[in-house]
Amino acid sequence: MEARDVHDNGGTAVRGVDSDDVQGVMTGAFYNRVNGALAEEVVPPPPMSDLSVRDSGKPTHYKVICISMYTRDLKRLDGLVDELKGRGMTKANRSALIRAALDQLDLDKVQRGI
């Protein structure tokens, strides 16, 4: 991405970028450049469903995910984890507690509008 001087209406020089470069970043093509030129043969990675997880040596019994939670809920979750650890459950953590909660979940008791 090459920066260039762009003049606003007041004649002030402002650093800008070409719209083609911005589009390249947005589509991912920018990252496929080799020495400034677009790589001719870019081979996209195979879909995850085509990968043999066993061959890669990665665990197949779990996946790492990302979720968002309110800070007050995280504080409560961490407090519960601390309580479990205080009771001698030294391997207690957020994931284990969430899994335990899922095991005990009764969908008929879930409030509307969650």
Would you write up a description of this structure?
It contains four helices and four strands. The chain has helices at 19-27, 53-56, 71-86, 94-104; strands at residues 3-7, 13-17, 33-34, 37-38. It is elongated, with a radius of gyration of 25 Å. It starts with a strand and ends in a 10-residue tail after the last helix.
How much is the average pLDDT?
A: 77
> How many strands?
4
Element order, helices and strands?
A: EEHEEHHH
- Work out the strand percent: 5-15%
Radius of gyration: 25 Å
The number of helical runs is 4
List the helices and strands and how they pair.
Blueprint: E1 3-7, E2 13-17, H1 19-27, E3 33-34, E4 37-38, H2 53-56, H3 71-86, H4 94-104
Antiparallel strand pairs: 1-2, 3-4
Can I get a quick summary?
This protein is of the alpha+beta class. Helices cover 35% and strands 12% of the residues.
Sum up the structure in keywords:
elongated; two-stranded antiparallel sheet; 4 helices; 114 residues; 35% helix; two-stranded antiparallel ribbon; alpha+beta; 2 domains; 4 strands
